[in-house]
Write a structure and sequence with these properties.
It contains four helices and no strands. By secondary structure, it is mainly α. The longest helix has 26 residues. It is flat, with a radius of gyration of 28 Å. The N and C termini lie far apart (about 60 Å).
C-alpha cells in the first residue's frame, strides 16, 4: 500500500470530507512531477553538478588547510552517489512510434480527415446544423 493510499484510508477513517482525497492525490501528483523534474535536471546537468561538488570540496579543503581532506573526499563521493540516485528515479522517455512518411498517421480518426464531396470548413464561421447541399 502506497503512502498516498495510507493517507487516503486514514482520512476516511477520521471521517474527513471527500475533498481531502483530492488534495492528497494532487499532492502526490505534485511530488512525483517534482521528483521527475529534479531527476531530469540532474541527468542533463551532471557535469555542472559535479563541478559544484568539486568546487565546494576545494573551498572546504582550502579553508581547513587540508585538515579534513579525507572527510571532504568522502562527502564528495556521497554527493555524486546522491546525484546518481536522483537520476535513477527519472521516468523513462516516451517512445515515439515509427511513422512511414507515405502513410497517414494511425491515430487519425474519420473526423480528422475531410469527407470526400463536402465543402471545406471555415474556422472563422460559426457551425451550422444544416446538412451540406448536394
Amino acid at each position: 500500500m502506497s503512502m498516498r493510499d495510507k493517507l487516503i484510508q486514514k482520512a476516511k477513517d477520521l471521517g474527513l470530507p471527500a475533498k481531502t482525497e483530492d488534495v492528497i492525490r494532487g499532492a502526490d501528483k505534485a511530488v512525483h512531477e517534482a521528483k521527475a523534474k529534479a531527476a531530469t535536471y540532474a541527468d542533463e546537468n551532471r557535469d555542472k553538478l559535479g563541478g559544484y561538488v568539486d568546487k565546494a570540496g576545494q573551498a572546504v579543503d582550502e579553508r581547513t588547510q587540508g585538515k579534513y581532506s579525507d572527510k571532504v573526499a568522502k562527502a564528495k563521493e556521497a554527493a555524486t552517489r546522491g546525484v546518481d540516485k536522483v537520476v535513477e528515479q527519472r521516468p523513462p522517455a516516451p517512445v515515439e512510434p515509427q511513422v512511414d512518411p507515405g502513410q497517414p498517421p494511425t491515430s487519425a480518426t474519420p473526423t480528422d480527415r475531410p469527407v470526400p464531396g463536402t465543402p471545406p470548413v471555415d474556422p472563422d464561421q460559426p457551425p451550422t446544423n444544416q446538412p451540406p447541399s448536394a
